[in-house]
Amino acid sequence: MKFMLIRRADEDTEQGVMPSDAMLEEMARYNERLTQAGVFVSGEGLWPSREGYRINFHDGEPDIVKGPLAEPDALIAGFSVLEVDSVEEALDWARQWPTMDRDGNTRLELRRFYELEDFDPGEGLDRHRRLQTQLARQPQQVNTHLVFNGQCREAMTFYADLLGGEIEAMIAFSDTPVATGVPEDSRDRIAHSVVNIRDRRLMGCDMNAECYTPPAGACVQLEYGDVEGAEQVFRQLSDGGTIQMPFEETFWAVRFGVVVDRYGIGWMINVGKPEMEMNP
């Protein structure tokens, strides 16, 4: 059974008064106990309602109202999601809410989630089940891993600069636990590197020369909204590389091109046509 333990708003939370460090520590200890018991799903605090919106529909038309939204005691300041075996167990955890919160004068509310088993069979329910199954299969992210022949550091630094990314990791074999087992002339090669580009990651490493084979059958695809920016990236990737398809208009794109850069990595650069995005 899943429950939402709601922390009601008050004058302080609606004014944006932040909890003290001592209160944060008490809340963390509470969440740790929930986690250790295996019942903690998530917990979040909410900004004051003046930063929120209410969307009211009238005959299908949305009317958006900017906060503040109502009297504090009618609003929510935060919540925890608990997965327990019974209402009694959920209430027991609610009773253990940190008494430091508002000197023991907090208002909580416990509400049970509907689950798919609570609904009558039908196509609508089946659709929700299919979506649930689909979501369960999905990874948190789909990223790209590249292999190099001793050029990883140079290439990933170049990509970070070219694509406006941030280097999150650049670890040489000499800095790993297997360093003593790596030939002396390979210890400066990169065992793991990460470039973060808008929360999508290019990862890369160097292979031993005898194990390395150039990448084939795959490209990193970049999507742009403006031709000028995309053309500049294509031109820089082409420098020292091989153009496999010129950067020009196609039936599906304002501009599209394919290039293998000087590090042996394939790239597709695309600036799509709006009509193709809407009607593929």
Task: Give the SSE layout.
Elements lengths: L1 E7 L2 H4 L6 H16 L3 E6 L7 E6 L2 E6 L9 E8 L3 H9 L12 E5 L10 H15 L6 E5 L3 H11 L3 E7 L17 E8 L2 E7 L13 E5 L2 H12 L3 E7 L4 E8 L5 E7 L1 H5 L2
Parallel strand pairs: 7-10, 11-14
Antiparallel strand pairs: 1-5, 1-6, 2-5, 3-4, 8-9, 9-10, 12-13, 13-14
Provide the gyration radius in Å.
27 Å
Please report the number of helical segments. 7
User: Which geometry do the CA atoms define?
Assistant: extended
Query: What is the CATH class name of the largest domain?
Result: Alpha Beta
Unreliable residue runs:
none
Strand order of the largest sheet: 2-5-1-6
- Sequence of secondary-structure elements: EHHEEEEHEHEHEEEEHEEEH
Helix content: 25-40%
Percent in strands: 25-35%
Mind telling me which CATH architecture of the largest domain this is? 2-Layer Sandwich
How would you describe this structure to a colleague?
This protein is of the alpha+beta class and 280 residues long. It has 3 domains: 2-121 and 126-134, Alpha-Beta Plaits, CATH 3.30.70.1060; 142-213, Roll (2,3-Dihydroxybiphenyl 1,2-Dioxygenase, domain 1); 216-280, Signal recognition particle alu RNA binding heterodimer, srp9/1 (2-Layer Sandwich), CATH 3.30.720. It is 26% helix and 33% strand. It has a 4-stranded antiparallel sheet with strand order 2-5-1-6, covered by helices on one side. Strand 12 (242-248) and strand 13 (253-260) form a beta hairpin.
